[in-house]
Design goal:
single chain; alpha/beta; seven-stranded mixed beta sheet; three-stranded antiparallel beta sheet; 10 strands; 19% helix; globular
Length: 175
């Protein structure tokens, strides 16, 4: 288990990772109780739609950390999120480029895929802080890799499969 305390301008935030039943969990807590929203998705279209609806409420400076295993639907969710911001260009996971910027919507979308990041310090080269505290919205796939770089205001989105509910079922929690 990896633990990290992060202090920004507010109270200390505890970020941790642990494995349960083979799944990597990304946990955030602080002195305030985090409100959680839960969504059930039974298709990639529903996952897309959940992302779209969440983006319609997104505000400048919002940061979303996406957590979920490979192939769980993080990129499908991101495509829906981009559509919710009014972005019409094709959205792909920036696995090899780390960052893709989309500026064609009501807010810029800064889409990160940090799967290949070995050390959080590598994000300085990308200019992470410029995006985290910029005028757009950050959506970060594999955010567990750089949790120590993220501010306490980061919203965590966990996407999980549950094969007992069907091959296409996804549980999506937002806190």
């Amino acid at each position: 288990m990896y633990d990290n305390y992060r202090r920004d301008s507010g109270p200390a935030v505890f970020l941790s990772w642990k494995r349960r039943d083979g799944e990597l969990l990304f946990i955030k807590s602080n002195s305030k109780r985090n409100a959680m929203q839960h969504y059930d998705s039974f298709s990639s279209e529903e996952t897309f739609e959940i992302g779209r609806k969440l983006a319609e409420k997104a505000e400048p400076g919002a940061i979303y950390a996406l957590s979920g295993d490979l192939g769980v639907g993080k990129t499908v969710f991101t495509k829906g999120f981009a559509a919710g911001l009014g972005i019409t260009e094709p959205v792909n996971s920036p696995t090899f480029t780390i960052l893709q910027v989309y500026e064609g919507g009501r807010l810029p979308l800064y889409h990160f895929d940090v799967y290949r990041i070995e050390e959080p310090e590598e994000m300085e080269e990308v200019g992470l802080d410029d995006y985290l505290f910029g005028k757009g919205v950050c959506l970060i796939e594999w955010a567990e890799q750089i949790a120590e770089c993220l501010p306490e205001t980061t919203k965590i989105i966990r996407i999980r499969k549950d094969l007992s509910r069907g091959l296409d079922y996804r549980s999506i929690d937002v806190e």
